[in-house]
Design a protein that fits this description.
Layout (H helix, E strand, L loop, with lengths): L3 E6 L1 H8 L5 H5 L1 H18 L23 H5 L4 E4 L2 E5 L5 H6 L10 H17 L11 H9 L1 H9 L1 H27 L7 E7 L8 H16 L2 E8 L7 H4 L6 E4 L5 H7 L5 E5 L9 H15 L5 E9 L5 H14 L2
Parallel strand pairs: 1-8, 4-5, 5-6, 6-7, 7-8
Antiparallel strand pairs: 2-3
């Protein structure tokens, strides 16, 4: 059985193809968010109905994504910028160095961001009977970069103890939101360790493996210890960090484009992996060229049963429908 191919589409793709608006009101209205996700599922089915995308009769998708993937940045005080054709973006806080030195964990009971989450959940539960309390938590470094920008990266080199303190507070806040917001809205009992956690480490490629090990790993390890099973998302080139990540004992890896997959599989011989294909790498590629890319990835990261899926993240309008179809059907062809 070949691994499946998944594709997610950027706000720009939806705006270009269907005129969807992703401005402020489209995100802050919880009913509009739920119905937009429902409409998206139906449109994908209609556009790619034979290929497994979308749903024929989708239900609304009640959710907490008023800030897109920037809930944690908003919690820390970042303003969120909304544009009609983009996902929400967090604005780095001013005076980052001073703020890092005086950082205090947000009081969740007093946070207007948390209060909105619970208010939205009540509206959605009343309307639909349920609400998905999931939040994209990112990871300690992800959150610190969203909040403090390049200052946290500079601190990792120049003031490692300050950086460690900031990152540990980011980790503690992720766990607090998991327990006190997501679990409460989902009606889940908080156990220790919790069943399943994930770290997103998108900015790690901006520091060296040694710096990650010496400065960032401690916070990631603390967060990992709070969960029984643990997934690691690293959307950059992964193999230089493969060794230092072993200390996290990941149960699943989500690996970025450009990674030496064969080398990574040698370090993690039994770990299930999902493999990202960068959208720009397949723009205007022929079906044969796409098949060559997909086959090489499956061969290098194999055996195939240990590849959970391949995926193209946040595809934009530069990716033609024909290319989307070729991608979705490629795993079947290359496994023949």
């Amino acid at each position: 059985m070949p691994p499946r191919m998944e594709i997610t589409f950027a706000a720009e793709w939806w705006h270009t193809h269907y005129g969807m608006d992703f401005g402020r009101d489209a995100w802050l209205d919880p009913i509009a968010r739920a119905e937009r996700a429902q409409r998206q599922a139906r449109l994908l089915f209609e556009g790619f109905d034979a290929l497994g995308l979308g749903e024929e009769t989708p239900e609304p998708k009640p959710n907490l994504t008023a800030y897109g993937d920037r809930f944690m940045a908003a919690l820390w005080g970042c303003s969120i910028e909304y544009r009609s054709d983009q996902a929400p973006a967090a604005m780095v806080l001013p005076d980052a160095g001073k703020r890092m030195r005086n950082l205090k964990q947000p009081v969740l009971d007093d946070s207007p961001i948390v209060q909105r989450a619970f208010a939205d959940a009540e509206i959605l539960k009343e309307r639909y009977g349920h609400c998905d309390g999931a939040i994209n938590f990112g990871g300690p470094l992800n959150n610190a970069v969203s909040v403090f920008g390049e200052e946290i990266l500079a601190a990792c080199i120049a003031e490692p103890e300050l950086a460690r303190n900031v990152l540990h507070m980011m980790a503690e806040t992720v766990l607090a939101v998991h327990d006190q917001v997501t679990c409460v809205i989902n009606g889940a009992t908080v156990s220790s360790p919790r069943p399943l956690g994930c770290i997103g480490n998108c900015p790690v490629c901006m520091i060296s493996p040694n710096t990650y090990h010496d400065v960032v790993l401690q916070a990631d390890q603390w967060l990992r210890q709070q969960f029984q099973e643990f997934s690691l998302h690293h959307c950059g080139v992964f193999h230089p960090y493969a060794g230092v990540y072993q200390e996290l004992r990941p149960d699943h890896l989500d690996i970025g484009w450009g990674t030496d997959l064969r080398a990574t599989r040698c370090v993690y011989p039994d770990t299930p992996m999902s493999l990202e294909i960068q959208a720009s790498a397949v723009v205007r590629k022929s079906r044969a060229e796409i098949d060559t890319i997909v086959k090489r990835m499956i061969d290098d990261a194999g055996p195939a049963e240990r590849i959970t899926y391949l995926w193209v993240a946040e595809a934009g309008s530069e990716l033609s429908d024909e290319t989307v179809c070729d991608l979705l059907t490629s795993p079947e062809r290359v496994q023949v």
